[in-house]
TrEMBL record:
Belongs to the HIT family. SUPFAM superfamilies: HIT-like (SSF54197), mRNA decapping enzyme DcpS N-terminal domain (SSF102860). One of its GO terms (cellular component) is nucleus. Gene3D superfamilies: HIT-like, Scavenger mRNA decapping enzyme, N-terminal domain. InterPro entries: DcpS/DCS2 (IPR008594), Histidine_triad_CS (IPR019808), HIT-like_sf (IPR036265), Scavenger_mRNA_decap_enz_N (IPR011145). One of its GO terms (molecular function) is protein heterodimerization activity. This is HIT domain-containing protein. PANTHER family: HISTIDINE TRIAD HIT PROTEIN MEMBER, M7GPPPX DIPHOSPHATASE. GO terms for biological process: cellular response to starvation; deadenylation-dependent decapping of nuclear-transcribed mRNA; response to heat; response to nutrient; response to osmotic stress; response to oxidative stress. It is found in: Cytoplasm, P-body; Cytoplasm, Perinuclear region. Its main location: cytoplasm.
Length: 352
């Protein structure tokens, strides 16, 4: 695969407008064009470096001190201060601004993501929007959501997944691969998620992609998948701590799936429990813990999640909202006897 490099693409980026700006996550998403095709650049300020774990050189076996110890390096948030300006102080409180030493390898300023050429689905996803709580019954799934998933599976949206699984895409970043040609349904690969800057285990974010293609979302999971999911979950917890020098423990991994996901090929999110997630990615109404998925299979019938009402958060820009979830949601609220939101005109509420 020959791809142009990020640097030369970014140089040709022509700004159009800001899609979203989030001071809490320190993420800015811009829409622009590169060679007249839509492009989305997302910039995320990186986290601070505060210490590093260093191995003691040639430690004597009788030395009781731990083999690894913590120390500040020259880029840490205190050692790295190059300039400091106090703004105000009051009693025991002081605050100011600082410039901290930056370096590409140890302390870069930001992580940049580029999607190019970006589709309208991408643009709508990154744009600020209103969100709604959806109660997706099995009937709504069949009528509105399944046809959408069928369409999404056909477009080129899963190219990045197939690149990783079969074309050596991101090969140098793969953390673990269990691939057996005669056992495709058990095969999977784990690698850093595009969201992770890879700098700090505090924000560790990995994704496990399975090779099987018969599960497009949680809706396709049935009791017959229970043993496979248990094995997968245990494998993730056994392998990952060792891959990161045991800086993280198995019970510090938040392992979950999304509904609705952005990509309808079964994959699992593996995130440091400390990481609050970007946007609503780990919030209730989006993330479902893998342990809960497995446990639910004990109670759901042979059709598994196909028979469950799934409640989740969806943005108005999502195609499913305009394809009927808007009307179904309004209908359900009416059936449940929940009053409509009045229209406010000049401070007066009107019911219609
Ligand atoms: O919401 P959903 O469960 O579909 O999440 C998909 C995940 O895949 C997100 O956390 C994305 O950041 C991640 N992801 C998306 N793409 C296009 C890539 C990619 O090309 N490489 C990697 N490593 N992760 C990706």
């Amino acid at each position: 695969m020959s791809q142009e490099d990020l640097g030369s693409l970014i140089k040709r980026f022509r700004f159009v407008r800001v899609l979203d700006s989030n001071p809490q996550t320190k993420v800015l998403s811009l829409l622009g064009t590169i060679d007249s095709k839509d492009a989305i650049v997302t910039a995320e300020k990186t986290h601070f470096i505060f210490d590093e774990t260093v191995r003691r050189p040639s430690q004597d076996v009788s030395d009781p001190r731990p083999i690894f110890y913590h120390c500040e390096n020259e880029y840490s948030c205190i050692n790295g201060i190059e300039d400091l300006k106090e703004l105000t102080s009051n009693d025991i409180y002081y605050w100011g601004l600082s410039v901290i030493k930056q370096s590409m390898d140890y302390n870069p300023t930001a992580k940049l993501n580029l999607i190019w050429p970006a589709t309208s689905v991408h643009i709508k996803k990154y744009e600020q929007q209103n969100f709604h709580l959806i109660k997706e019954t099995p009937e709504i799934y069949k009528k509105i959501v399944k046809p959408y998933i069928d369409e999404m599976a056909e477009g080129g949206r899963l190219k990045w997944v197939n690149n990783i699984l079969y074309e050596g895409g991101e090969a140098e970043r793969v953390v673990y691969k269990d691939y057996k040609e005669d056992k495709i349904e058990e095969s999977f690969i784990i690698l850093p998620d595009m969201k992770w800057d890879g700098l700090s285990v505090d924000s560790l974010y990995l994704v496990a992609l399975v090779y099987r293609t018969d599960i497009r979302s949680i809706r396709d999971i049935k009791p017959e998948h229970k043993e496979w999911l248990i094995k997968l979950n245990n494998k993730i917890k056994s392998i990952i701590p060792g891959c990161y020098n045991y800086a993280i423990n198995p019970d510090e991994l938040r392992i979950f799936i999304h509904y609705q996901p952005s990509y309808y090929h079964f994959h699992i999110h593996i995130v440091n429990i400390k990481h609050p997630g970007l946007g609503n990615g780990i919030a209730a109404g989006k993330a479902i813990l893998l342990e809960d998925v497995i446990e639910s299979l004990n109670y759901l019938g042979p059709e598994g999640f196909m028979t469950k009402t799934m409640t989740y958060v969806l943005g108005e820009n999502h195609d499913l909202w305009g394809r009927g979830l808007d009307k179904e949601t309004a209908k359900q609220l009416e059936e449940d006897g929940i009053p409509k939101t009045p229209t406010i005109v000049n401070g007066f509420a009107f019911n219609h």
